[in-house]
Amino acid sequence: MYPEPAARRYAEAAHLIAREEHREDEWLSGLQSIAALFGDSAAQRFFANSGVPVAQKAQLLDKSLAGLPPDILNLARLLLRRQRTRLAPQIAQAYQEILDKAKGISHATVTSAVPLSDDERREVQQKVEQMTGGTVVIQTEVDESILGGLIVRIGDRLIDGSTRSKLLALRQRLAGARS
Fold first, then answer.
1. For the chain, how big is the Rg over CA atoms in Å?
2. In the chain, N or C: fewer CB atoms in 10 Å?
3. Best CA proximity match to 108, nearest among 75, 84, 132
4. Do 82 and 24 lie in a common domain?
5. Residue 31, C-beta contacts closer than 8 angstroms, at least 6 positions apart
6. Which string of DSSP letters, residue by residue, matches 16-73?
7. pTM for the whole structure
8. Would you give per-residue pLDDT tens digits along the chain (179 residues)?
9. Are 165 and 120 contained in the same domain?
10. DSSP-assigned letters across all residues of 58-116
11. Whole-number Cα distances in Å, 112 to 98, 136, 143
12. Last residue of a domain, one of 62, 84, 101
């Protein structure tokens, strides 16, 4: 799921502040705490309830996020005031993406027909890092319908080395040869 434009704008603003003050990781941790609070289903109902006074919501927010630096806590208060608390998980996600991009880290989803062993996962990660020329964080998924091989998605790039896609390509070539 891609973050909404408003969530991306909040994340970009947070990153500008964090980068300027050399506090990128501190902001990431704070945004993750805010996302955990506002992403909780019971908390969502509480914060969305128009029958609960704003002061009571702010009191719970301050208590739940005690210990966060004041500027990060101010972002949580701003989201509460603007009734945009539902954006918090998306803001944290967008911030993580911005931070990773700034650090040259890519994310890849590797789909296989069977779960990969730790050794296979490391080998795939090394190959993908060689292809991209940078650090890659890999997330694995299992999809038995691909039959074998791997499908690797890095951003909007797709590398389909699945047995299923090779069989479909062969079928198309054979159908074309008959015509």
1. 22
2. C
3. 132
4. yes
5. 11, 14, 72, 75, 88, 91, 92, 95
6. HHHHHTT-HHHHHHHHHHHHHHHHSHHHHHHHH-TTS-HHHHHHHHHHHTTTS-HHHH
7. 0.73
8. 667 899 999 999 999 999 999 999 999 999 999 999 999 999 999 999 999 999 999 999 999 999 999 999 999 999 999 999 999 999 999 999 999 989 989 888 999 989 999 999 999 999 889 888 889 999 999 999 888 888 888 877 888 877 777 778 778 888 876 65
9. yes
10. HHHHHHHTTTS-HHHHHHHHHHHHTT-GGGHHHHHHHHHHHHHHHHTEEEEEEEESSPP
11. 28, 17, 6
12. 101
At which residue do the structure tokens 């947070």 appear? 14
Domain that holds residue 9: 5-101
Q: Rounded distance, CA 132 to CA 126, Å?
A: 10
Structure tokens at 161: 């080395």
Q: Amino acid identity, residue 60?
A: L
For residue 76 the two structure tokens come to: 């949580």
Report how far residue 70's alpha carbon sits from residue 80's, in angstroms, rounded to the nearest whole number.
15
Which residue has tokens 């608390």? 85
Q: Which two tokens stand for residue 148?
A: 């074998």
User: How many domains in the chain?
Assistant: 2
Boundary-marking domain end, from 101, 134, 149: 101
